[in-house]
Design a protein that fits this description.
With 281 residues, the protein is an all-alpha fold. It contains 12 helices and 2 strands; from the N terminus they run H-E-E-H-H-H-H-H-H-H-H-H-H-H. The protein has a two-stranded antiparallel ribbon with strand order 1-2. A hairpin with a 7-residue loop joins strand 1 and strand 2. The longest helix is centred in the last third of the chain and has 35 residues. Pfam families: BPD_transp_1 (PF00528).
Length: 281
């Protein structure tokens, strides 16, 4: 019965994906070649929007700034999340469920709220020395966003790593112990190889989250000073909405398409690299 009527059950999800993603994506791709204020008055102008997007120095700076942020946050989040997961999966450690809940809770708070909370916290600390985060250089804003992102995402990745660690067959760990392997050797020779599928997932999530970061960037620094801490998503938003005229909306749409292609390409490279490690293990 189910085999015969499976298309009927698939239809709601397929329609949602079609009208919620495919149609808007195709429409957005077309608009990236147009000058427009609204969809109804779009005028095709060819590759002018893309030429203007690539010529925009702020867009190039935002890309490199975002790329650096994504790499640094990806490394730090996964290192700390795995370290905490290893600690919370040790035997005879009391209160592990409480610790897991506490570490995971920041992920439940919305990005824009987190941004404003950390803006107040950081500026409150810096005000003691007569400084404000938004008035500092891009380095201060960069590490402010790194701290915020670590606090928000480490707990979520920790849960995934805990699930991966608990799925490792106990026979492997017992065999390593019998062979006299140290805790460090067990980690690198047994746990890490068996965690590669989990690492693939966590790297995928953290690198995409790093590139897509918007709410926290807007609330914490708003791209200041002078667009120095402006990341790609915020740059696209400012191009599309903060500048007047259909010309800038078209350029913003072109930037969004470029952004989408860049993220897909980077993620595909990451997935290929980590999944190849899974095959080798």
């Amino acid at each position: 019965m189910l085999k015969r009527w499976w298309p009927l059950f698939l239809l709601p999800t397929a329609l949602s994906f079609l009208f919620g993603f495919v149609v808007p994506f195709i429409q957005g791709l077309y608009l990236s070649f147009c000058k427009f204020i609204s969809i109804s008055d779009a005028k095709f102008i060819g590759f002018s929007n893309y030429a203007a997007a690539f010529a925009d120095k702020q867009f190039a700076n935002a890309f490199w700034y975002t790329a650096l942020f994504a790499v640094v946050s990806m490394i730090l989040i996964n290192v700390f999340a795995l370290a905490i997961a290893l600690a919370l999966t040790r035997k005879h450690l009391k209160g592990t469920n409480t610790f897991r809940t506490v570490f995971f809770m920041p992920n439940l708070i919305g990005g824009i709220v987190l941004g404003y909370i950390w803006n107040i916290l950081i500026n409150g600390v810096l005000s003691n020395v007569g400084q404000q985060l938004l008035a500092l250089n891009s380095t201060a804003g960069f590490w402010g966003m790194i701290i915020l992102t670590l606090w928000q995402q480490i707990g979520y990745m920790m849960i995934i790593y805990i699930a991966g660690l608990q799925s490792i067959p106990s026979d492997y760990l017992e065999a390593a112990k019998v062979d006299g392997a140290t805790a460090w050797q067990t980690l690198w020779k047994v746990k890490i190889p068996n965690l590669m599928p989990t690492i693939t997932i966590c790297l995928f999530l953290t690198i995409t989250n790093g590139f897509k970061l918007f709410d926290q960037n807007l609330a914490l620094t708003a791209g200041e000073p002078k667009h120095a801490t402006e990341m790609l998503a915020l740059n696209i938003y400012n191009t599309f909405y903060a500048r007047q005229g259909g010309k800038w909306m078209g350029i913003g749409q072109a930037k969004a398409v470029i952004f989408c292609i860049l993220v897909i390409a980077i993620v595909m490279v990451q997935l290929r690299a980590t999944q190849s490690r899974e095959v080798q293990q």
